[in-house]
TrEMBL record, chain A:
It comes from the Bacteria. Signal peptide: none annotated. This is Sugar ABC transporter permease. The chain crosses the membrane at residues 6-29, 41-64, 101-121, 133-153, 190-212, 242-261, 295-313. Its main location: membrane. It comes from Cryobacterium algoricola. Keywords: Cell membrane, Membrane, Transmembrane, Transmembrane helix, Transport.
UniProtKB/TrEMBL annotation, chain B:
The keyword Iron-sulfur does not apply. The keyword NAD does not apply. One of its GO terms (cellular component) is plasma membrane. Gene3D superfamilies: MetI-like (1.10.3720.10). This is Carbohydrate ABC transporter permease. The chain crosses the membrane at residues 39-59, 109-133, 140-168, 188-210, 231-256, 293-311. Belongs to the binding-protein-dependent transport system permease family. SUPFAM superfamilies: MetI-like. It comes from the Bacteria.
């Protein structure tokens, strides 16, 4: 990178921020001086129009276009449901769908379970803050960074060489033969899933921990006086008390998992039978030039997310009514 | 997490978050040991398991190239060695084969800062209008914006790219003609894409916060003759700072860590592409150059980790609030 490049970049950022501030400031200045008649409408337009225009042009219209695109082939000719037929008949595409299902079942279940257990175990313990920060840290790391971290763990060195990947070293210590983990189907899908679990557990833990602290101590003390053991208190008092947060955590992780792209892209690029819908959508639309198939995959993704979101919204509404 | 910082109003978890404040201070005084010995062991094991991968990468990034690729990082005591060459090489080297991360690091910053500010300003304006300007159809429109959260950004990518190529590209070329220092391939598409994808969630969250400002405050100002513009800048924005901060941190990290939007809208050149994209490329083409990959990964992690450890409590709020983004 030369100094001129750097200067060009700084000009871009500063220029863009200045232009943005100028436009907003100017509009604001003008709006306060709008004709008295209908001034409220002018002001309303100023406040709300930028957001609505961007959403209309950048989200609503493209979403409709994608829906239409899904019924065309790579040269834009209408082909009916052919792309969807492709998706549900081609073995490779079926593996992609199957993998996505495995991801969305395994990741939310395990990361919520571990996150909940951990949150309970460290609750009110000494150094709780640090315990939390350690498990929560992966949340701040990019999926790409996480992908590299875990590729290093799964690294493979052939035959007599020393292993530099921790997993293979453990296998060797136990007397086994090193494995090319990421190339070996179907275990590679589960190894990628571990990365996602590693990231999402912290999220589950933080939210559930806050929820656990919200369970009234009186209830727990009352249960203690009744002679219940720790497990009974957990299942009969704590779990019902945090049900709302549990739903939020599980649905949120499910949605994030359905859309997982970066991990697969960085670690295997979807090769060796590890592809998932979001990755395949990118590969088809932007690498293979099959925009119709990409669009069809995006729609399937949308349809898979939809019920989860609707369920989540309904739960939210119920909780609001209770309050 | 139970410090008394003003909370973003988070649907579903808000009640708990409020109670935490009261319970948290009580329990803070009675610090107990971990519930039992098994629990202690289990949580220690989890904590170690969760930290070990990052730690291994961190240690490795300081080891000489020869040692990284022949011995495991856990043998560092038998095979000692410390060097900063890996970092020097990925950041400063100008040779063709090196990752040259310097330019990409600047790109990541240049993308993330405006892509945080733009949606924040636009969304807070819209949130104010939804909360405090009465107009016909306000409720229905707000529900529509809220509903847009369920559209995965994958659904918008292809047409949006086509639109950018058709509309934005001539503008970028013209700008390049005008100021040659700015490359024809510039940040504009990435900024716009991130801004659009952030809006539904941002508007929803900031609306929740802004609408809870006591109406007497706003009405008093309006009666005194303040325009909506004045109320927004003088009263609403200062009061909404905690919510704005939480969302800003969350959005910054989201943009910094993003790969998909960057891959599609940046074009992949050192002029625009962020660190994540360069890293993904490196793992694809040089997956065994661990001396470079480890250092490169840490270069990309350092900003999020600093943000995370210094602003953890705000970050938690952003996450709690932003959990349905995308």
């Amino acid at each position: 990178m030369t100094t001129a490049d750097l200067l060009g970049k700084i000009i871009q950022v500063v220029g863009a921020l200045a232009a943005f501030a100028l436009v907003i400031g100017l509009l604001l200045f003008l709006i306060d001086r709008a004709p008295k008649r209908g001034r409220d409408y002018w002001q309303l337009t100023f406040f709300i129009a930028p957001a609505l225009l961007l959403l209309l042009a950048g989200l609503i219209y493209p979403a409709f276009r994608t829906s239409l695109l899904a019924f065309t082939n790579s040269s834009g000719v209408y082909v009916g449901a052919e792309n969807f037929v492709w998706m549900f008949t081609q073995p490779a595409a079926l593996i992609t769908l199957g993998n996505t299902l495995i991801w969305v079942v395994v990741v939310p279940t395990i990361s919520t379970a571990i996150g909940l257990g951990y949150a309970v175990f460290i609750d009110k313990s000494r150094g709780e803050k640090y315990f939390k920060a350690l498990v929560f840290m992966p949340m701040a790391i990019s999926f790409v960074g996480a992908g590299i971290i875990w590729r290093f763990i799964y690294d493979y060195k052939s035959g007599g060489n020393d292993q530099i990947g921790l997993l293979n070293q453990i296998v060797v210590w136990l007397g086994g033969q090193p494995v090319q983990w990421l190339q070996t189907s179907p275990i590679n899908t589960f190894l990628l899933i571990i990365v996602m679990i590693w990231i999402q557990t912290g999220f589950a833990m933080v939210i559930l921990s806050a929820a656990i602290k919200g369970v009234p101590t009186e209830q727990i003390e009352a249960a203690e006086l009744d002679g219940t053991n720790a497990w009974q208190r957990f299942t009969n008092v704590t779990i019902p008390g945090i049900r709302g947060s549990l739903v939020v955590v599980i649905t949120t992780i499910s949605i994030a998992t359905l859309k997982v792209f970066d991990i697969v892209r960085t670690m295997t690029a979807g090769n060796f039978n590890t592809s998932v819908i979001a990755n395949e959508m990118y590969t088809q639309a932007f690498r293979a030039g099959e925009q119709g198939r990409g669009a069809a995959l995006a729609i399937v993704l949308f349809l898979m997310v939809l019920p989860i979101v609707i369920y989540n919204v309904r739960i939210m509404r119920k909780q609001r009514e209770i309050r | 997490m139970s410090d008394n910082v003003v909370d973003l109003p988070i649907v579903g978890t808000k009640k708990n978050a409020l109670e935490v404040v009261t319970v948290g201070t009580k329990s803070a005084r009675v610090k107990r040991r971990l519930t039992s010995r098994t629990a202690t062991v289990v949580s220690l094991v989890i904590a170690i398991l969760w930290t070990l991968p990052t730690f291994g990468l961190f240690v490795s990034s300081f080891r000489p190239a020869g040692l990284i690729t022949t011995t495991g990082w856990w043998t560092i005591l038998q095979n000692p060695g410390f060097t900063l060459d890996n970092y020097k090489e990925v950041l400063l080297s100008t040779s063709q084969s090196s990752p040259q991360l310097g330019a990409y690091f600047v790109n990541s910053l240049a993308i993330a800062i405006p892509a945080t500010i733009f949606p924040l300003v636009i969304a807070s304006m819209a949130a104010y209008a939804f909360a405090w300007i009465k107009f016909k159809g306000s409720g229905a429109l707000f529900v529509l914006v809220f509903a847009l959260q369920i559209v995965p950004l994958q659904l918008a990518l292809i047409p949006l790219l086509q639109m950018f190529t058709a509309i934005l590209k001539p503008g970028q070329e013209a700008l390049h003609q005008l100021i040659p220092m700015i490359p024809a391939q510039n940040y504009l598409p990435v900024w716009i894409a991130h801004t659009i994808f952030a809006l539904p969630l941002a508007i929803f969250l900031l609306h929740n916060f802004i609408s809870e400002i006591p109406s007497e405050v706003i009405e008093a100002a309006r009666v005194d003759g303040a325009s909506h513009g004045q109320v927004f800048f003088r009263i609403v924005l200062p009061l909404a700072v905690p919510a704005l901060a939480s969302f800003a941190i969350f959005q910054f990290l989201w943009v910094w860590n993003d790969l998909l939007v960057a891959l599609i809208f940046s074009g992949g050149t050192p002029d625009v592409a962020p660190l994540t994209q360069r890293l993904a490329e490196l793992t694809g083409t040089r997956g065994q150059d661990w001396q470079r990959l480890t250092a490169a990964a840490f270069v990309s992690l350092i900003v999020p980790l600093i943000v995370f450890f210094s602003l953890q409590r705000y970050f938690v709020r952003g996450l709690l609030a932003g959990s349905t983004k995308g």
